[in-house]
Specification:
binds calcium ion; Phosphatase 2c, domain 1; about 425 residues; 8-stranded antiparallel sheet; alpha+beta; single chain
């Protein structure tokens, strides 16, 4: 058996009830699509897109031709989605990301929309080739938040651009990038890139496994991390043959099953059992990816909301700080109170005295004070008792301290 040069794998994950991702690896074409549309439509959207786009899996004479064909197929898929929604109103609002590679010799043609990603692993460096069309990426690009903040931002699943029934002329990113023997390309849905750190992804790509084993390892690692979302990966290896194909072509995820979406009233309840079975898990999962059309007013509103959220977070921090400081002060006060219930006997200026508090000091703070001065002179005490008094004698209470002084006084008399 020959080593597979490319592979595709998709998994529903551990929380979701259905797989809304689709993927494809064939002769020249490699694609991932991540569908969305709440309880209905996401799986349909990615399946429709992949089935339409995979028709472009052919040999092209130039990268420019391939780029044109690929971009046209995404626009055709967009049109198909709009038509499907027109005929099946229950699918309104469905959409899908698409990230595709079409190889022509030593060039990779790229078409991309949404937040699935294409990475290139070359010379042990991992580079993200596509940009996420998300609200948080907008915030990062404009310097409002850092990439680290974006990764945990509550609105990180809001997409600004997808294929769907909203925009007749969606803005699709395209590019032509040279590729060379040794390159390994990865296409994945956010179910991988949002939950597996890039150094883990890089390690999996660098592990010396073939394309098929690499997709398995990546999916397994995501499952080990809880896989809250559907996860789809396509790995494409480039060697000096000019060919990255897998024979026969592989379709994975919802596009691999027959399309069924007519009169399915039951769809609406699909997510309920998950919520009932794992309320905590569901609560801790990010909301489903969803598309919110891009307009200046809407963006301004999101940014204003982000600013309010940051302010709320600052206030929360401030309250937490005040509470912590308050607790510390209260603790110190209680500790001080405790020391003031204690007495001990010692000496001052050659006289036996009763101290209130404890012998220890807290830095410059003395935790005791003279409570009673007695008329017993330390010099009058027997030698060994003098030493004991200088070392101080603990008392259980004030009366106990007085009893100790009484005994010292008796020792003088003898
Ligand atoms: Ca996803």
């Amino acid at each position: 058996m020959t080593t597979p040069k490319s592979a595709a794998l998709s998994n529903v994950g551990k929380i979701r009830s259905n797989n809304q991702d689709s993927g494809y690896a064939g002769q020249q074409l490699f694609v991932v699509a991540d569908g969305m549309g709440g309880h209905a439509g996401g799986d349909v959207a990615s399946a429709i897109a992949i089935r339409r786009i995979r028709e472009t899996d052919k040999q092209y004479t130039s990268p420019g031709d391939a780029e044109f064909a690929l971009q046209s197929s995404l626009i055709a898929a967009n049109q198909l989605l709009a038509e499907t929604v027109f005929e099946h109103q229950e699918l309104t609002g469905m959409g899908t990301t698409v990230s595709a590679l079409l190889r022509v010799g030593d060039s990779m043609t790229i078409a991309h929309i949404g937040d699935s990603r294409i990475y290139l692993w070359r010379d042990d460096e991992l580079s993200q080739i596509t940009a996420d069309h998300t609200f948080v990426q907008r915030l990062v690009d404009s310097g409002r938040i850092t990439a680290e903040e974006a990764a945990v931002h509550p609105r990180r699943s809001v997409l600004m651009r997808v294929l769907g029934d909203v925009d007749a002329a969606p803005e699709i990113d395209t590019a032509i990038i040279g590729t060379q023997p040794g390159d390994r390309w990865l296409i994945c849905s956010d179910g991988l890139s949002s939950y597996l750190a890039e150094d883990r992804i890089k390690k999996a790509l660098a592990a010396g496994l073939d394309a098929d084993q690499t997709t398995r390892r990546l999916v397994k690692e995501t499952l080990d991390h809880g896989a809250p979302d559907n996860v789809t990966v396509v790995v494409v290896d480039v060697d000096d043959t000019g060919d990255s194909s897998v024979e026969p072509p592989v379709t994975v995820g919802s596009a691999s099953a027959p399309l069924t979406f007519e009169g399915e009233a039951g769809r609406k309840s699909l997510r309920l059992p998950t919520i009932l079975l794992h309320p905590l898990k569901v609560a801790s999962t990010p909301e489903d990816s969803h598309f919110e059309p891009e307009s200046d007013e809407y963006l301004a509103e999101l940014i204003a909301e982000d600013r309010r959220r940051r302010r709320r977070r600052r206030v929360t921090w401030l309250v937490a700080l005040v509470v912590a400081v308050g607790a510390l002060v209260a603790g110190l006060f209680l500790a001080y109170q405790w020391t003031q219930d204690h007495y001990y006997v010692g000496e001052r200026n050659g006289t036996v005295v009763i101290y209130k508090g404890v012998q220890q000091t807290l830095g410059p703070i003395t935790l005791s004070e003279v409570h009673e001065v007695t008329d017993v002179r330390v010099d009058d005490l027997p030698n060994y008792t003098q030493q004991t008094v200088e070392d101080t004698i603990n008392a259980d209470s004030l009366s106990d301290a007085r009893a100790i002084v009484e005994r010292l006084s008796d020792a003088v008399a003898r």
